[in-house]
């Protein structure tokens, strides 16, 4: 009888140990899922040109620019054309590096220049049309037809107080600037 009790106790202890480990793992996400979630949030914020959400993901904050709603809508129209795919994430302690393949329009400035010409022609035909709306419509049409290119981007992450942040992503920061500069330029001609 003593032997049977010891076996039952051993089986009970083994089951409790397994349940403890399983429940701990379920309650706490691992670094792999946390870095993937961060990357997804970051890249989705890029695609929606949401500077505030980008800054929540990053250690170094981007300038909010203070642009008008019209300029931000134009930037969103171009940024929405970005497609991305995570190729891999290497984690080493509290540091991680993600390799991301990004497909985006080749020439944001060319899109904006052509869209401005399209909007000007529409406004010549109908001077009562809203200039910002005409330009936004033209930006969307030009961006949808734009030639694209593919880039590989490296995004560095760090873990601070059990939370992951983007540390460096020069390629993506440059894309944000490449979008904003020509969009701001064509909207400023219209007074926005």
Descriptive overview:
- There is one protein chain.
- This protein has 192 residues and is of the alpha+beta class.
- Helix content is 59%, strand content 21%.
- It contains seven helices and four strands; from the N terminus they run ααααββααββα.
- A four-stranded antiparallel beta sheet has the order 1-2-3-4.
- A hairpin with a 2-residue loop joins β3 and β4.
- α4 crosses α7.
Key words describing this protein structure:
59% helix, four-stranded antiparallel beta sheet, alpha+beta
The shape, in one word, is elongated
Radius of gyration: 25 Å
Strand composition percent: 15-25%
Characterize the main sheet.
Answer: 4 strands, antiparallel
Order of helices and strands: HHHHEEHHEEH
Distance between the termini: 87 Å
Label the structural class: alpha+beta
> What's the rounded overall pLDDT mean?
89
Number of helical segments? 7
Q: In what order do the strands lie side by side in the largest sheet? A: 1-2-3-4
Q: What's the total count of β strands?
A: 4
Share of residues in helices: 55-70%
Poorly predicted regions are 17-27
């Amino acid at each position: 009888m003593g032997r049977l009790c010891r076996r039952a106790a051993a089986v009970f202890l083994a089951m409790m140990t397994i349940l403890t480990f399983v429940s701990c793992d379920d309650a706490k996400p691992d670094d792999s899922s946390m870095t993937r979630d961060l990357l997804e949030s970051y890249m989705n914020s890029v695609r929606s040109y949401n500077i505030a959400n980008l800054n929540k993901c990053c250690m170094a904050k981007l300038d909010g620019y203070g642009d008008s709603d019209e300029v931000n809508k134009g930037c969103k129209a171009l940024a929405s054309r970005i497609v991305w795919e995570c190729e891999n994430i290497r984690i080493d302690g509290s540091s991680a590096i993600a390799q991301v393949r990004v497909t985006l329009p080749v020439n944001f400035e060319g899109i904006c220049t052509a869209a401005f010409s399209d909007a000007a022609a529409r406004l010549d035909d109908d001077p009562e049309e809203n200039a910002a709306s005409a330009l936004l419509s033209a930006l969307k049409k030009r961006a949808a037809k734009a030639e694209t290119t593919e880039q590989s981007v490296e995004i560095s992450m760090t873990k601070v107080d059990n939370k992951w942040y983007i540390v460096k992503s020069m390629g993506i920061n440059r894309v944000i600037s490449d979008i904003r500069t020509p969009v701001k330029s064509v909207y400023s001609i219209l007074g926005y």
